[in-house]
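Exam revision sheet. Question 4 asks you to relate a sequence to its structure. Input first:
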Amino acid sequence: MARILKPYSAKAGSPVFKVSRGGGLPVVLYWAEKTLAYRTLLWQKLNHKSACKSCAWGTGGQKGGFRNELNEPLQRCAKGVESIVGDLQGPVAADFFARQSLAQLQALSSREAERLGRLSYPVILRAGSSHYERIGWPEIYAIAQKAFARPPERVASYSSGRSSNEAAYILQLMMRALGSNNLADCSDLCHSPSTYGLKQVFGSGTSMVSLEDLKQSDCVVLIGSNAPANHPRLMNELIKLRERGGRVIVVNPVIEVGLMNFASPAFVPSLLFGSEISSLYLQPDPGSDVALFVGMAKSLIEQNKIDRRFLGAHTENSQAVIEHAQATSWQQIESTCGIERVLIEQAAQMIARSERVVFAWAMGATQQANGVDNIFAIANLALLTGNAGKPGAGTMPIRGHSNVQGFGSMGVSVRLKEEIRLALEKLLGRPLSRVPGHDTRRLIEAAAAGQIDALLCLGGNLWGANPDQGQASRALGQIETIFYISTKPNQGHFHGLASKQTIIIPVFTRDENPHRTTVESGNNFVRLNETGRTHLPGADLISEVEFLTQVAHHLLGEVPVDWRRLQDTAYVRQLIAQTIPGFEKMATIDQTREEFTIAGRIFHEPVFATPTGRAKMFVPPLPELRPPQIGDFGIEPSHRAIPLVLVSVRSYSQHNTVVYKEGDSYRGMPHRNCILLNPDDAQAAGFAEHERVTVIGKIGCKEQVEVIFGSPKRGVALMFYPEINAIIQPPIDERCGIPAFKRNPILVVASG
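Answer key, structure tokens:
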């Protein structure tokens, strides 16, 4: 079994851990606490035949609430319980919005907004009013009919992965029938480099690895992921991989304790004693992943460990990639990524000794100014070693929200696949608009320029998710009408306000819908959700499918389709089967209840979805990363100051912008206004642990920030998203619109 190496830092320093391992007894106690609080109701929801509402590592569906796509039991985690518990809250009081002014609502934190309760009746904030007020459905549809009758380029939508494939399909069909391609999505802010980059290389923008493949692998390279907090059930697969003698190479500028050792409640020995996760832990400088992977490629080439036969038969442009790695000096590689050659070579040797390698990554790799180049570099490494197009190996982006990938599959994208375009044109009986649509960042820019009149948000928190919340407030304030379709209040409802009218539509959760729906996991598996009922008696709720079809009917009547017929989700699935490639089995899923893996995405043979069937390799340039300097901030601080690279992260007990708990027990951060520093950086600046400091970013500052000692690499600091969005202004990878949340300059100065 490979040994755990001492966590690497570019300079000497002692890593600090606040807890000894991830998972374990705290998870068990949390389950017990919530079971006592909600008793039968919680377990009814846990066992409901519907997919988990948390991450895209899918469970539930027709196999039962605790089973995954391979029918394995005990596949629920604390993240899923958190989402259910949030939805089991009582309703927001009937007089709540009359009692709470907008100013009071804007003072709420994300957690406080989440704990207000379930939305149970529609409300509107009219221009000039200080309070939301209740509104009836006839007026809602009249407003929608007028608002979305504007020129198509001036109407837009934004969506999250909370909803169903059926709602996503109806949303994009309505928008395209109106003539608009402005279908912004939360994936624009998280995995758009994965989708864009993988499509360029393999012709498919999703994981080529199934859960069964992961069980056959003998090495996983885990890049930019804090899976113990965000995808805990993935840890079960890593534990089993290590137990069968496999290796886990972790690439992360921060030592996350759960990636060193994790105690899974699914396995008694692991729960009691913990399980070793990482075989090798590499801490590159944020944003330098390309240099690290070029270094691994260079080492493999020098060892003659690349698969030249595979490259010649199944790839294009491999020689240029090889020559680029050979021409790049070790000095340039080491100085760019901040990792010594000996450790890069050790990682390359681990990959070379492995028969089946899975390259998995999350937003640490994608949320960079060169996010697409990172994906190219990862794909190159997989192809150079022949770890693509065979069982147990390949590339695997780890998706966040439970159905975020399904939205892309249904056509909710500004980059619509040509085959879907042709099928939709046949269905609608006319050509679709070719005017390029706005992705999420461009939507905000267009709104700020006064180019958007109406916006429909299907879930999510557009205001909170944006990297510049001040800009987002101003931009959304230029839009006349905004509809928010939500289950619970969030900060975006109170800060992302339209100029004329802001309307909040309360909807059923996934396990409350009066009709069946489907969702898609991050590994391309489609799950069927059964009908359910709400625990909110007398609530004035509507399903997302019904609301969208009613809006479409008011706008378009029965042209070019009978929109109200789409309230029958079985009929929607028939349309999906006809128009979305790989979803042909949707046509019979209501009769067979057969959940399925989407055709054409899992590559067990090296024949890819490109025009030639070969993978196309790209040469990604090494980034030029300049460390921040004190002079960059235009001030003359006290002698106690240090410039750092900030990585914004989600805390443990957080889902996207929703905060369930204020603190982070994994990192030892007791509240949201903390900064995690390497003790050596703090000592160099004269900061003590728990001291309060000021953190200055590109567009603002945060005061009274508590210093917590932890294990980021020297020169790197961590703070929580979305709060930190108020002071940073990340650069954008213009190829896909991703903001670089994971590398931003800050100056930490002594308060006062």
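Marking note for examiners. The first helix runs from residue 25 to 47.
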